[in-house]
Design a protein that fits this description.
Layout: H1 2-14, E1 29-30, E2 38-40, E3 46-47, H2 58-66, E4 75-81, E5 93-101, E6 104-111, E7 114-121, E8 142-146, E9 158-164, E10 169-176, E11 181-188, E12 203-206, E13 232-233, E14 252-254, E15 259-260, E16 264-265, E17 270-274, E18 280-283, E19 290-298, E20 304-305, E21 310-311, E22 313-316, E23 322-324, E24 329-331, E25 336-337, E26 346-351, E27 354-357, E28 359-363, H3 383-389, E29 392-393, H4 399-404, E30 413-414, H5 416-427, H6 446-457, E31 461-463, H7 471-478, E32 488-492, E33 496-500, H8 510-513, E34 520-524, E35 533-536, E36 542-545, E37 551-554, H9 557-562, E38 567-568, E39 587-592, E40 599-603, E41 613-616, H10 619-623, E42 628-631, E43 639-643, E44 666-669, E45 675-678, E46 716-721, E47 730-734, E48 739-743, E49 750-758, E50 789-791, E51 801-806, E52 817-819, E53 826-830, E54 842-848, E55 855-862, E56 866-871, H11 886-894, H12 917-925, H13 948-957
Parallel strand pairs: 5-13, 11-16, 17-28, 47-56
Antiparallel strand pairs: 1-15, 2-14, 3-12, 4-9, 4-14, 5-6, 5-12, 6-7, 7-8, 9-10, 10-11, 17-18, 18-24, 19-22, 19-23, 19-26, 20-21, 20-25, 26-27, 29-30, 31-56, 32-33, 32-46, 33-34, 35-36, 36-37, 37-38, 39-40, 40-41, 41-42, 43-44, 44-45, 47-48, 48-53, 49-51, 49-52, 49-54, 50-51, 54-55
Length: about 950
């Protein structure tokens, strides 16, 4: 390795464009080692020493060279030049020197005439878009450091240098070479990544821009001036620009840090911000008094407050703001620094008609990020700030306003992501992201599923449509089919049913066999060859779209392979017939969506719609063909095959090709017969393929696995994998009463701290969501950081989304609740709109470690994981006398807290739960109804509960306003 490094150094030392440093005063740099060599001294673009040996990040490159000699890693760039007026015009972005590009890079630029160091370590853009303030946080992958020297003057020779010392500190120096005066400023950049990708594409430009405008160091191609690369231009004014060089060898890039200096410090105004009190003190080091006429203040991520709230930018004008005597200081009136964790302010002051940037200093202690109550730690006291705005948009506020409102992530929304970040900050350790493994999330046991199935099937309710009618039988029967050896079933256009042992890893897997004929033949059912696709659901039911466009089902896999017990579950042929002539109708296969519990379909259709990927949130929507286009025109003649859970699906582990990295869990066959897959949710782009003859099963580009298996041809018309029933939790929705409950339907307990029920079609009631805290076994939060479940304030009136959070326990530890696998219902409220009956609900919840409370994984469940049921009898008629009246209220009151079996005509969604507030809500919503008809309240007096929980329930529900028509 040492020989390798020395050989590379020898190459560098012998390259003709390299030079030893000239340490003249105008260079602004000193303290470089005798062994130091500039990597580049070229008028670009230049390729640095062949590029290939240098890796992809600046820290790595610096370490390789300087580590041999004991030097600290880092770099320095310097240049001497003479600008003209055009280079300094407002709105101009002029190149001095830049290295890197692509999504990374570093450059010295003139922005509005102000020398600026721009850094970019990935996708992102320096912010704010102003040459007044410095953005010294790389949280957004970019930063910009503006010189306090201010705007340059035309026709004057300047030397500018920047250095990085590998300790997150950048220093920027600007010097007027005529007066030998200048400014040196050091800036600590936070939010840094593990490396500084100044290196980018290895090209180096000086004074002249060459190449792709999206690949200039430190700039971006995504937003407006002055940081957009397409707006950057070459210098007009140069000195000694000949033979492609810019100031000859006075423009250099050194692969170690140096000490920057200027001939004598320029006497400029300075600003000191008191981080605790907010005062902004301007100091005047000059020998005469100055009068500040106006001030432009930009907070970067922080902000200023003029009494109207914190904003990122303020302009104080009107003339004669403050006069400061020579050698004195004064507080800038009418404005204060808004207390925040950010210290990246920039201040430009206008004095006697000239505007100059000030050097900004700070005094006092900085606030901790997320510490809204100023306690010195992130804890329960900070939760109320987030909760007050939870699940609302703050996009109309600027950055500091968003932060003050609880938007920790800065995305314009106060939501689950901010909740997660707050708890991570409070825990003092990083949260674990991604899917939980099998050790954390146990799979349902066979007898546990049978028990749940028996319990559900004995309930006195009926399904809303034929497509759901087989669920109880399928749930019981599926327990005997999931143990079958074959993981994947494919059906050909001749009706052959063949099995494969997974996608990869065994001799009988898809990628090892390589063609349809290599599978194991189970049966041949000629009629199946005319179908448009098949899929299997976790409860064991198999669905198929037949040649006429109708939906058929088989209650078990065994029924499907034998073609027994077929049920047609839809009429009206919602998908259209599969025809050969154009324009066509029908589909190109479909699949269960393991990410949401819904289904995907690839449409056949006329040419302009061919290949659309359509998504359905529920079985009902699928049967009715009531979905939404997820990806238009992205799949052409491809056949949507299957969701395959054994690669990297939710709560599973064990890749069939464990040495190949993350796998795919959605697969299709292209028109050319290739078997291809996606990692995660389907997208139109990002998957790559190995060429013919390459090893199947490897990772393709874009992080998705693809298989080059043309042997499948056009034989396969549908496929599905055996998806285990991982009904982690599910919703039980009573479509006759509107009651919604939560059930833990799989073996083992589950510990959660976030719960959300959404309806994409706005099928919820504005009120009636009580949440977990309304149940005796879970604590209700107080909204002040105390222990328990807090409801999002936005729940009230929201007909598409209900959310609740468990932030902290009373002892300050991270809070959560454990949902047991008892199979009992946990009532959440009466908030499902039965009149619309959209059946599109989706359940979200976050799984956390029961001991530490730290985040493990989020689960999203919908479609087949939401049970839509309908109670029999007259809801609220608890004494079975044929009417809902005061007598039923008395029965409810006398049995409060008792087992639910004591109430007749109780909502089936409340199965297993104690009699409580929601039973009262059902009674109140149906008061005055009689057998055969349901009536609204119509002003009829409704008695309210008068004691204990009943009284509390009455107060909560007084504004329910729920009516039936």
């Amino acid at each position: 390795m040492l020989v390798h490094h020395l050989f590379r150094r020898f190459l560098l030392l012998t390259l003709p464009f390299l030079s030893l440093p000239s340490l003249a005063q105008a260079d602004n740099l000193s303290n470089l080692s005798d062994f130091a060599t500039s990597l580049v001294a070229f008028g670009g673009p230049a390729d640095i020493a062949g590029e290939s040996d240098f890796g992809a990040n600046g820290r790595q490159l610096a370490d390789e060279f300087n580590g041999l000699n004991g030097f600290d890693a880092g770099w320095t760039m310097n240049t001497t030049f003479t600008p003209v007026a055009a280079d300094l015009a407002t709105g101009e972005t002029r190149l001095l020197m830049e290295i890197g590009g692509t999504s990374n890079g570093t450059g010295l630029w003139l922005l509005d005439g102000v020398p600026t160091l721009a850094l970019k370590t990935g996708a992102g853009l320096p912010s704010p878009i102003s040459s007044v303030a410095s953005d010294v946080s790389l949280v957004d992958n970019a930063a910009a450091i503006f010189s306090s020297y201010g705007s340059l003057s035309a026709g004057t020779s300047y030397s500018i240098a920047a250095t990085w010392n590998a300790n997150d500190t950048f220093t920027l120096a600007v010097q007027d070479n005529s007066t030998q005066q200048g400014v040196v400023q050091s800036t600590v950049v936070d939010g840094t990544s593990s490396s500084y990708n100044w290196y980018g594409n290895s090209t180096y430009n000086v004074g002249r821009l060459v190449g792709d405008p999206g690949s200039y160091g430190g700039l971006s191609g995504t937003e407006g001036t002055p940081f957009t690369a397409v707006d950057a231009v070459s210098m007009d004014g140069v000195s000694d620009f000949s033979n492609g060089t810019f100031n000859g060898f006075e423009t250099l890039f050194w692969n170690e840090p140096s000490t920057l200096s200027v001939g004598s410090n320029l006497a400029v105004l300075t600003a000191t911000i008191d981080l605790e009190q907010g005062d902004i003190t301007i100091s005047n080091p000059t020998s005469s008094s100055v009068t500040i006429d106006s001030a432009t203040l930009i907070g970067g991520q922080g902000g200023f407050d003029d009494g109207n709230g914190a904003v990122q930018q303020l302009v104080l004008s009107g003339g004669n703001l403050v006069t400061i005597a020579a050698g004195s200081s004064a507080v800038l009136p009418g404005v204060s620094w808004a207390p925040s964790p950010f210290i990246d302010a920039g201040i430009a002051l206008e004095v006697s008609g000239a505007t100059t940037n000030t050097i900004v200093n700070y005094t006092g202690s900085t606030l901790l990020f997320g510490d809204y109550d100023g306690s010195g730690v992130v804890d329960a006291g900070d939760w109320p700030t987030l909760l007050a705005s939870m699940n609302t948009s703050v996009a109309d506020l600027d950055g500091i306003g968003r932060y003050m409102a609880g938007d920790l992530t800065g995305d314009g929304q106060v939501d689950r992501n901010d909740f997660r970040l707050l708890k991570e900050l409070a825990s003092g350790s990083a949260a674990t992201s991604g899917s939980a493994d099998a050790a954390n999330v146990p799979e349902p046991a066979t007898w546990g599923l049978i028990a749940v199935g028996i319990t559900m099937c004995l309930c006195t309710y009926r399904r809303k449509s034929a497509v759901l009618a087989t669920a109880c039988v399928a749930l019981l029967a599926s327990t005997s089919t999931t143990a079958m050896a074959a993981d994947i079933y494919m059906v050909s256009n001749t009706g052959e049913i063949r099995t494969f042992d997974g996608v990869g890893g065994t001799s009988g897997s898809v990628d090892q066999v390589g063609n349809f004929a290599g599978g194991t033949l189970v049966n041949t059912i000629a009629e199946y060859g005319t179908y448009q696709g098949f899929t299997s659901l976790p409860n064991g039911t198999v669905y198929g779209v037949n040649s006429a466009g109708g939906v058929d089902s088989w209650p078990t896999l065994a029924d499907f392979t034998a073609n027994t017990n077929l049920t047609t579950v839809s009429t009206g042929d919602p998908y259209g017939s599969l025809a050969t002539e154009s324009p066509r109708s029908g589909i190109h296969g479909f699949s269960f969506d393991g990410n949401t519990g819904g289904l995907y379909v690839v449409l056949e259709g006329p040419d302009e719609n061919e290949g659309d990927l359509k998504q359905y949130s529920t079985l009902k929507n699928f049967v009715e063909n009531n979905g939404t286009i997820y990806t238009p025109n992205g799949y052409a003649g491809n056949i949507m095959l299957m969701y395959y859970p054994d690669e990297d699906a939710r709560f599973t582990t064990g890749l069939p090709n464990a040495d190949a990295g993350p796998g795919s869990n959605y697969f299709h066959i292209t028109g050319g017969g290739q078997f291809e897959g996606w990692e995660g949710t389907l997208t139109q782009s990002g998957y790559g393929m190995y060429g013919v003859g390459a090893t199947p099963g490897g990772d393709g580009g874009g992080g998705n696995r693809s298989y080059q298996l043309p042997g499948f041809g056009n034989e396969v018309i549908g496929s599905f994998s055996i998806v285990p029933d991982t009904e982690e939790m599910k919703l039980l929705v009573d479509t006759s009463t509107g009651v919604v409950s939560l059930q833990r339907a799989a073996a083992g307990d589950r510990t959660i701290d976030f719960l959300r029920v959404s309806s994409p079609g706005s099928g919820l009631l504005g009120s009636g969501y009580l949440g977990l805290g309304a149940n005796d076994e879970f604590p209700a939060g107080d909204g002040l950081g105390g222990e328990g479940w807090d409801l999002a304030p936005s729940n009230e009136g929201n007909i598409s989304d209900k959310r609740e959070y468990f932030a902290f326990n009373n002892d300050g530890t991270l809070g959560n609740s454990t949902i047991s696998n008892s199979g009992d219902s946990i009532p959440l409220g009466l908030f499902y709109d039965t009149e619309q009956d959209l059946q599109d609900l989706v359940l979200y919840y976050d799984v956390v470690d029961p001991t530490t409370g730290e985040f493990i994984s989020q689960s999203i469940i919908g479609g087949v994981y939401v049970d839509y049921v309908e109670s029999t009898g007259l809801p609220g008629d608890y004494n079975s006398d044929g009417s809902v009246d005061l007598g039923d209220y008395t029965v409810w009151r006398d049995n409060l807290g008792a087992d639910g079996s004591t109430l007749a005509n109780r909502s089936v969604a409340l199965n297993g739960s104690e009699i409580g507030t929601i039973d009262y809500m059902v009674w109140k919503a149906n008061f005055g109804a009689s057998s055969g008809s349901l009536a609204s309240l119509d002003g009829t007096a409704v008695p309210e509960p008068t004691s204990g929980l009943a009284l509390l329930g009455a107060i909560v529900l007084a504004a329910l306003g729920y009516r039936r028509t």
